[in-house]
Design brief:
By secondary structure, the chain is α+β, with helices and mostly antiparallel strands. Helices cover 33% and strands 19% of the residues.
Length: 184
């Protein structure tokens, strides 16, 4: 098992994760206040995406689903920006993070024999240009749709700190975190 964990971390870094580690689900701190931030539409995706609240489900159901796993690969990507007001650079960093996240998730699906995998990413699902939720339709790609770490009530700051990953990575950078849970 130790070899599998070491390989996961090594593979994530080879696929451009700046930081990666294995985390124990039992150590994850949950905070329902994140759902309140969702309900205040702080990211602009509330009630606009199948993988965001309210459509993604209740926080208690999501927490129960997460707690059904024992470990996960926690990783972070870091992207340069011009300054702390560089919104365009932050969005570009998010797009780059999404590409890295999808590569790592696909690599895990194709190269490991886990009995179950639950990918959680940063922010709203971006698989489709426009979410079918906005048209009142079912998700067109439920096998590719991914909810955010925060939508599941996970305290990202506490998680990265407990895992030894820096929350901030220096001036003029933006960082994004993803968690891919797995069952052996």
């Amino acid at each position: 098992m130790e070899t599998v964990f070491n390989n996961l971390v090594k593979d994530a870094k080879a696929l451009n994760a700046a930081h990666a580690t294995i985390t124990e689900v039992a150590e994850i701190k949950f905070n329902e206040d994140f759902r309140e931030l969702c309900e205040q539409n702080s990211c602009g995706s509330y009630n606009k995406n199948w993988m965001c609240p309210p459509a993604v489900g209740s926080i208690s159901d999501l927490k129960e689903r997460v707690l059904g796993f024992k470990q996960g690969l926690l990783f972070q990507t870091v992207h340069p920006i011009e300054d702390s007001f560089d919104w365009e650079g932050m969005l570009e960093g998010k797009v780059n993070h999404e590409k890295i996240f999808r590569k790592i998730h696909e690599y895990i699906e194709n190269n490991y024999t886990f009995t179950a995998v639950l990918p959680l990413n940063a922010g709203p699902c971006m698989y489709c240009v426009k979410c079918a939720y906005l048209e009142g339709e079912e998700c067109h790609f439920p096998d590719k749709a991914v909810s955010s770490v925060e939508a599941n009530g996970i305290d990202v700051m506490a998680l990265v700190k407990a895992s030894g990953i820096p929350y901030k990575n220096g001036e003029n950078t933006v960082s994004y975190v993803a968690l891919i849970l797995f069952k052996l």
